[in-house]
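Postdoc handover notes: sequence design on the structure in folder B. Input tokens:
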């Protein structure tokens, strides 16, 4: 144990030990010898898998198994660095090391205040050792606080339509810069509520981009309206205001702009069009919670904004979504539509001691339960950390792939702060994309393609007679786009490893004389 007093060590590890402060001070003192990387790794490798950090430490202590403490910040940093290189055994070791941090070893917290200022979710990550983080393009990130929040909600008086729903609505609306929030059971439900609140119906046209998840267009069809596809800009793949202008007809009622990958659209130009033609502007911001344009957050840029809390999105409620708006009438209409079309929900009727209600217009049951909202509130606390991690990973990809001539990331709008739901690159040709997709999937990297243009899906071809040629930019993009793994459970080393595999696959492809040179 290289000169570290066992008693001091145990006191430092035990949150309840009377001498803990003194022990911590001693451990971080100048005459404590630093452990070597090898010693730290050996120690970490010997750590058994345990359901919680506390139990893990108890086991170590009771078994007398603590051999080396990463006494110096530099030594600890070295472990993290090696983990960032992506070596599997080091990743495992670093995970354990990070769990030590969460266990409350203050000396270690000082080791990495810059790169890992906050370390949520580590204990749970050990509970759900979800294979290689890059095996999925997106994944939820939960921690013990999330579990506790859900449990608290389950023990409360209300399982649905209670106070947590309202708290979650206020909290998301605040982050999104809007006056009202309406929590619903999915992002799709939020979009449907938006269409219902705007009274979209048969004969109405709503302009949508084709490069989006199909729900953006489906919600118009749910209301009997007609989605009309307007093409995207080739650089950003965001809805092109010029294409929108060309697609407006006397029947157009609204535009749904999609903040594809997490970058807000050109709302200034879109707003000019909606003003000129008296249209409603809806933002499908399912990719862009936490993004902003000229300092204005996603949620404050359109008449109605819709978010999703699906597990791959920025924060999760399991399934869930929210519509935010500044307009109290639209919020009220969405609220009713969420609850069968009933004029007063259960709590409102209880408050007024009345059984009376009416259904002026038919709605749905799109309510989001209390415990989902409790999870959402707890997740929202971590949104700044999630965004920071996503931006860090995107920057890592950008730098690591800067020298690759056959791939390019999407163009950035200078006036936006990107939320990076997705990191999408474009290959020079379809065959490069296809072979890269196959090669990376073959190596366990969860690459994906977002999206098959909606107007090419069978339902739309049959019912709206859409097809190839309708939106050439989206169709060309579809042939060459590739989504790389990006979620808060990844670290920069994971992104560098993916970039390395991409370069390797591209080189192999060239060697095999594939037509991608
Ligand atoms: C995720 C998503 C939706 C739908 O959200 P759900 O919560 O899965 O219903 C809609 N539009 C876009 C652009 C999305 O990414």
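Designed sequence:
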């Amino acid at each position: 144990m290289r000169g570290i007093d066992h008693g001091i060590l145990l006191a430092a590890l035990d949150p309840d030990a009377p001498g803990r402060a003194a022990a911590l001070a001693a451990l971080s003192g100048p005459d404590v010898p630093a452990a070597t990387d090898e010693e730290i790794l050996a120690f970490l490798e010997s750590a058994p898998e345990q359901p919680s950090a506390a139990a893990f430490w108890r086991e170590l202590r009771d078994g007398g198994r603590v051999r080396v403490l990463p006494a110096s910040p530099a030594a600890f940093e070295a472990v993290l660095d090696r983990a960032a290189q992506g070596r599997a055994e080091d990743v495992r070791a670093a995970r354990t090391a990070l769990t030590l941090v969460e266990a409350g070893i203050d000396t270690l917290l000082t080791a990495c205040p810059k790169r890992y200022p906050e370390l949520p979710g580590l204990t749970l990550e050990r509970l759900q050792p979800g294979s290689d983080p890059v095996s999925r393009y997106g994944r939820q990130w939960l921690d013990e606080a999330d579990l506790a929040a859900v449990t608290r909600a389950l023990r409360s008086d209300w399982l649905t339509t209670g106070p947590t729903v309202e708290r979650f609505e206020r909290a998301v609306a605040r982050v999104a810069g809007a006056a009202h929030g309406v929590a619903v059971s999915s992002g799709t439900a939020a979009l449907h509520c938006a269409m219902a609140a705007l009274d979209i119906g048969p004969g109405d046209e709503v302009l949508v981009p084709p490069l989006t998840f199909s729900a953006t267009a489906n919600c118009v069809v749910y209301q009997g309206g007609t989605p009309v596809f307007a093409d995207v800009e080739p650089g950003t793949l965001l809805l092109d205001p010029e294409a929108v202008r060309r697609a407006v007809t006397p029947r157009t009622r609204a535009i749904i702009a999609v903040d594809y990958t997490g970058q807000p659209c050109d709302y200034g130009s879109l707003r000019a069009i909606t003003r000129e033609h008296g249209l409603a502007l809806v933002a499908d911001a399912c990719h862009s919670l936490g993004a902003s344009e000229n300092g204005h957050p996603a949620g404050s840029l359109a008449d109605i904004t819709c978010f999703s809390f699906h597990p791959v999105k920025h924060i999760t409620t399991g399934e869930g979504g929210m519509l935010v708006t500044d307009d109290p009438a639209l919020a009220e209409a969405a609220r009713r539509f969420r609850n069968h079309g009933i004029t007063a929900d259960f709590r409102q009727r209880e408050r007024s001691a009345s059984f009376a209600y009416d259904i002026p217009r038919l709605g749905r049951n799109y309510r989001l339960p209390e415990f989902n909202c409790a999870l959402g509130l707890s997740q929202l606390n971590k949104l700044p950390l999630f965004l920071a991690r996503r931006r860090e990973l995107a920057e890592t990809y950008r730098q690591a792939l800067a020298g690759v001539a056959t791939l390019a990331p999407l163009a950035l709008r200078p006036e936006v702060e990107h939320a990076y739901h997705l990191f999408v690159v474009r290959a020079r040709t379809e065959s490069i994309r296809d072979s890269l997709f196959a090669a990376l999937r073959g190596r366990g990297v969860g690459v994906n393609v977002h999206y098959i243009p909606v107007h090419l899906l069978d339902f739309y071809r049959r019912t709206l007679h859409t097809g190839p040629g309708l939106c050439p930019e989206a169709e060309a993009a579809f042939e060459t786009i590739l989504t790389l793994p990006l979620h808060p459970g990844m670290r920069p080393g994971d992104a560098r490893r993916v970039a390395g595999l991409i370069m390797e696959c591209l080189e192999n492809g060239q060697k095999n004389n594939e037509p991608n040179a």
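Context for whoever picks this up: Residues 492-511 form the longest helix (20 residues). Don't rerun without checking with the PI first.
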